Amino acid sequence: VVMNDASLTTCFIEANPSTGLFNLNLATVGGGAVTKLYYPSYTDAVNGTNAIPDPSIFISPNTIVYVKGTNANGCTGISKITLNVTPPKYSTVLKDKIICAEDTTTLDAGDGFTAYEWSTGATTQSISNVSIGTYWVDLTLNDCVTRQTVTVSASSSPIVSGIEITNNTITISVTGGTPPYKYSMDNILWQDSNSFTNVPRGMNTIYVKDSYDCEPIAIEVTVPNLVNVITPNNDGVNDVIDYSALAYKQNLVFNIFDRYGNKVHQADKSNGYKWDGRFGDRKIYTGTYWYSVTWNESDPAKTPVKFSGWVLVKNRE
């Protein structure tokens, strides 16, 4: 019996893309009026062992199987069938995207496919006005359909992790989001530097945005009045350094240090956030001292703020 080699090609199975479902009976192997049995190897075909039970639903990766034909006279012939699985064909241009929460975008699956069907119902190569979410598109090529999923995510906002105020200079520390960051005090003029100089006393608003240029975050920052000299002589003028105006701030602490870094006073709620130039009950020496005032702002992140400066204490008997 003369049998011809043949080949079959089928689409991948989505659950196991390296395999496909073949109907071996569709292979054109000739042989005339013969009874055909299919085998996983040539040896099995010769010996008539391990025949494939149901050749119409044969699941396999790329491989070669063998068919043995037997005619009415008992004569036989063997040929091979090459099985080819068409693998998934994904778009190389369709990628996950990160956008601002308030924005929309366009998803483009690229050309090279014969049909498109999106989860939105669109049948075009691209879809527009796409908001945050997960989408899929069925891509058809060579009668095979590949489903590709794509996610549009909101960019994470930067977070102000700390603020340092020295004299009239504010320095902002930022984490999160996607650097580089930009900073502004009016939400109009932006700068790369995280420091602002000559900032006026009182309440100021700092704006921060990251490289996605989304709606900026805003945080209010209080720049306290700067006290550089006190003369604790009980004349009612500059007798104390007083930051009780900040008493409404959360976790307010006011520390005084000498030039060696030794703490000489801690002003807190118990003493009204004031200092009169004393170390305990004793007047300190005339000289320059350094202080830091720390607190947490009332924003959701409870942003820590540190205000530091120096004060000249003139103690005279």
Give the count of helical stretches: 1
Give the uncertain stretches in residue-range form: none
Number of DSSP-assigned strands = 27
Main beta sheet strand tally, sense and closure? 8 strands, mixed
The helix content is under 10%
Radius of gyration: 39 Å
Structural class computed from helices and strand pairing: mainly beta
Give the CATH class of the largest domain.
Mainly Beta
CATH topology of the largest domain: Immunoglobulin-like
Please state the overall shape, judged from the principal axes of the Cα atoms.
rod-shaped
- How far do the termini sit from each other? 127 Å
Q: Please, what is the average pLDDT?
A: 94
**What number of structural domains do the residues give?**
4
CATH architecture label of the largest domain = Sandwich
- Helix/strand order: EEEHEEEEEEEEEEEEEEEEEEEEEEEE
Beta fraction: over 45%
Structure in words:
The protein contains one helix and 27 strands. It folds into four domains: 81 residues, Immunoglobulin-like; 58 residues, no CATH class; 47 residues, no CATH class; 85 residues, Immunoglobulin-like (Sandwich), CATH 2.60.40. β1 and β2 form a beta hairpin. It has 317 residues and is mainly beta. Strands 13, 14, 16, 19, 21, 22, 26 and 27 form an eight-stranded mixed sheet that branches. It has a six-stranded mixed sheet with strand order 3-5-6-1-2-4. The mean pLDDT is 94.
